[in-house]
């Protein structure tokens, strides 16, 4: 079910939105931006899915290990 919402935007923001996104796609664009902030998601399932991506996990581990040395160089 969809609900209608009236919002007020600065004219420049509206014109930019109209030019970049297009009049008929504004609602979907705004909804896609807001959805992750207002709808609860199953974080555990998301983390499990991310952990199964071996390339991403390897890259994340390499990044984490590379930055550990940076902490040791800091003065207290």
Description:
- By secondary structure, the chain is an all-alpha fold.
- Helix content is 67%, strand content 0%.
- The chain has helices at 11-20, 26-38, 43-51, 54-72.
- The mean pLDDT is 86.
- 0% of the residues are buried.
- The protein has 2 domains: 1-38; 43-69.
- The longest helix is centred in the C-terminal third of the chain and has 19 residues, at 54-72.
- The chain has 4 helices and no strands.
- The N and C termini lie far apart (56 Å).
Fold topology:
Elements: H1 11-20, H2 26-38, H3 43-51, H4 54-72
Quick structural summary:
The protein is mostly helical. The chain is built from 4 helices and no strands.
Structural key phrases:
mainly alpha, 2 domains, 76 residues
Number of helices: 4
Q: From the helix content, strand content and strand pairing, which structural class follows? A: mainly alpha
Tell me the series of helices and strands, N- to C-terminal: HHHH
- How much helicity do the residues have? 55-70%
β-sheet strand percentage: under 5%
Compute the CA-based radius of gyration.
21 Å
Mean pLDDT reading: 86
Count of all domains = 2
> How many individual β-strands?
0
């Amino acid at each position: 079910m969809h609900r209608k919402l009236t919002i007020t935007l600065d004219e420049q923001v509206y014109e930019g939105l109209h030019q970049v996104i297009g009049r008929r796609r504004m609602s979907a664009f705004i909804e896609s931006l807001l959805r992750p902030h207002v709808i609860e998601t199953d974080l555990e399932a998301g983390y499990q899915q991310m952990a199964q991506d071996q390339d991403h996990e390897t890259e994340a581990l390499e990044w984490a290990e590379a930055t550990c040395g940076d902490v040791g160089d800091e003065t207290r």
